[in-house]
From TrEMBL:
One of its GO terms (biological process) is steroid metabolic process. It is an enzyme of class 1 (oxidoreductase). This is Delta(24)-sterol reductase. Keywords: Membrane, Oxidoreductase, Transmembrane, Transmembrane helix. It comes from Zostera marina (Eelgrass). One of its GO terms (molecular function) is oxidoreductase activity, acting on the CH-CH group of donors, NAD or NADP as acceptor. The chain crosses the membrane at residues 20-47. Its EC number is 1.3.1.72. GO terms for cellular component: cytoplasm; membrane. It holds the Pfam family FAD_binding_4. It is found in: Membrane. Residues 53-232 form the FAD-binding PCMH-type domain. It is a single-pass membrane protein. Its main location: membrane.
Length: 564
């Protein structure tokens, strides 16, 4: 290990009251959160079934009526008196970890809760038209039995199409298709003044089309999206490949698992993810779709990972370190949602015994607790504790920097396991918020093509090593260091995370040029909170937001005057 990786010495930390609150939180989770979650999931499921019973035509009709209601509501608003726009969704419903403090500023609510239907599935065009509140679990339940799937299905059941487009979404097929928003064909949005527009890559609203991703809903209300479908088979043939070495060597093994050095497309798997379990051990998993006939052939192992009593997926994968390489066939839908029940590995922190066999067999079917309910029952004390003692960040970095970022994360946080998931970042005709490194194509690096640079999402979700050992740890400082590292290394931090970025640094990380122009052009300024303020940690007042907006508007006006 290089010196760079040496972790700093940290003194022991004294326990305080909130430590005990967190330690015994499982009582609330078991007796309150889990049963209520289960009931909520069941009600949502009934809602999905009810939606499925309606014909596509009927759903489309209701959609049109609901859009009309949104337009009417927007036209009834007086921007000077009524405050900024936001959805009527309760802040804790979102899966994102930052509490949506922005909703505390005075605002004018628009109810989008009825936009939860799949409007059409077109086998000819291979697209689906989906409303923003449709979840991943809902969509795969419909498409997988048809041998179809969204090109990118985020793993967690609860994630919504709207969140994945307005923010970011990724999964093990992103090394082919890019981020979730890259699979969108068209979007229907309602702008602040009530105008309904359809934006595509090449129509008059193409600038809007390209700026909605990462905008966090601050340009208009998304009311439906047409998304690319791909043909899939019933099973995923998954190879678990253990790997040992330094973090740099693990990063190389990970890159080799899905990006063949000779660039031969036949060697690129349909799916890929890497798990780093310690500074010297990892398991790389690659999957290809397989038919039922193939899976059922004698000698093949079928793993119905979706059953509630099954060992948690990341722990199951870890056994490859002992067993050596092995291959399994997992039903496609089970595979897509393999990390749901354990909330990746966060479940272990919330309910320390929930990975034990007796809990899984007895109560595994109650898992996972709804993140929204966990947030609603945590209170400010526990929430702040988590900000300090716990890391949930995704680091999007160029593939050639994965070794470096693993060493950096080790030194800063010692969080394990780490999740590795590659994704293409396409070269687009306009300046979007995130983009490949300038001149990346001349290096011809592993995984890159002239039209896209290969990136990797490094998921850092857990209590840091020092916290687990009872040592002093400064979560805010760690987050700041991570953010600065990302800015220096052309990396990005998805905005759902708790961010410590200042406004200036936020715009060092993201390119705000086209975004600001679209905000002006489509009347978002003074109507939707700007994305930095929406994501900023802590409470913000309406005055603060409006003053910032005013400043931006003035700068923009000056710029326009200078242009003339
Ligand atoms: C899905 O594909 C399998 C073959 O792998 C086929 O037997 C089945 O009928 C297909 N299902 C649908 C709904 O087309």
């Amino acid at each position: 290990m290089s010196d760079l990786m040496e972790e700093p010495l940290r003194p022991k930390r004294k326990k305080v009251f909130v430590d005990y609150l967190v330690q015994f939180r499982w009582i609330v989770v078991i007796f309150l959160v889990l049963p209520v979650s289960f009931a909520l999931y069941f009600m949502i499921y009934l809602g999905d079934v009810r939606s499925e019973l309606k014909s596509f035509k009927r759903r489309q009709m209701e959609h049109d009526e609901n859009v009309e209601k949104v337009v009417t509501r927007l036209r009834s608003r007086d921007p000077r008196k009524d405050g900024l726009l936001c959805t009527a969704r309760k802040p804790y419903i979102a899966v994102s970890l930052r509490n949506a403090d922005y909703k505390r500023a005075r605002h004018f609510q628009v109810d989008l809760s009825s936009f939860r239907n799949i409007l059409d599935i077109d086998r000819e065009k291979m697209t689906a038209i989906i409303e923003p509140l449709v979840t991943m679990g809902q969509i795969t339940r419909v498409t997988v039995p048809m041998n179809l799937s969204l090109a990118v299905v985020a793993e967690f059941d609860d994630l919504t199409v709207g969140g994945l487009i307005n923010g970011y979404g990724i999964e093990g097929s992103s090394h082919i298709y890019g981020l979730f928003s890259d699979t969108v064909v068209s979007m229907k949005l309602v702008l602040a003044d009530g105008l309904v527009v359809r934006a595509t890559k090449d129509n008059e609203y193409s600038d809007l089309f390209y700026t909605v991703p990462w905008s966090q809903g601050t340009l208009g209300f998304l009311v439906s999206a047409e998304i690319k479908l791909i043909p899939v088979k019933e099973y995923m043939k998954l190879t678990y490949n253990p790997s040992r070495g330094t973090l740099q060597e693990l990063a190389q093994a990970y890159a080799d698992s899905f990006a063949p050095r000779d660039g031969d497309p036949a060697k690129i798997p349909d799916f890929v993810e890497g798990m780093i379990y310690s500074p010297i051990e990892g398991v790389m998993m690659t999957g290809v779709y397989a038919s039922k006939e193939e899976a059922k052939m004698t000698g093949n192992v079928i793993n119905n990972q979706g059953w509630w009593f099954k060992p948690w997926f990341y722990q199951h994968a870890q056994t490859a370190l002992k067993r050596g390489e092995f291959i399994e066939y997992i039903p496609t839908r089970d595979y897509y949602h393999r990390h749901t029940r354990s909330i990746y590995w966060e479940g272990k922190l919330i309910l320390p015994f929930s990975d034990q066999w007796w809990f899984r067999w007895g109560f595994g079917w109650l898992m996972p607790p709804k993140i929204s309910l966990l947030k609603a029952t945590q209170g400010d004390k526990i929430r702040n504790y988590y900000h300090d003692m716990h890391i949930i960040q995704d680091l999007l970095v160029p593939l050639h920097k994965v070794g470096d970022v693993l060493e950096f994360i080790h030194r800063e946080t010692e969080v394990y396991p780490l999740w590795l998931c590659p994704h293409r970042l396409f070269v687009l005709p306009v300046n979007t918020m995130i983009k490949p490194e300038i001149g990346f194509e001349v290096h011809n690096r592993q995984g890159d093509t002239p039209y896209a640079q290969m990136f990797t999402d490094v998921g850092v979700y857990y209590a840091p090593g020092p916290v687990l050992r009872g040592e002093v740890f400064d979560g805010c400082q760690a987050a700041k260091n991570i953010e600065e590292w990302l800015i220096q290394n052309h990396g990005y931090q998805p905005q759902y995370a708790v961010s410590e970025l200042t406004e200036k640094n936020f715009w060092r990380m993201f390119d705000g040029d086209l975004y600001e122009r679209c905000r002006r052009k489509y009347g978002a300024i003074g109507n939707f909170m700007s994305v930095y303020y929406k994501c900023k940690k802590g409470k913000k007042t309406e005055k603060e937001v409006l003053e910032a907006e005013q400043a931006i508007a003035e700068v923009a006006e000056l710029a326009e005057l200078e242009d003339q």
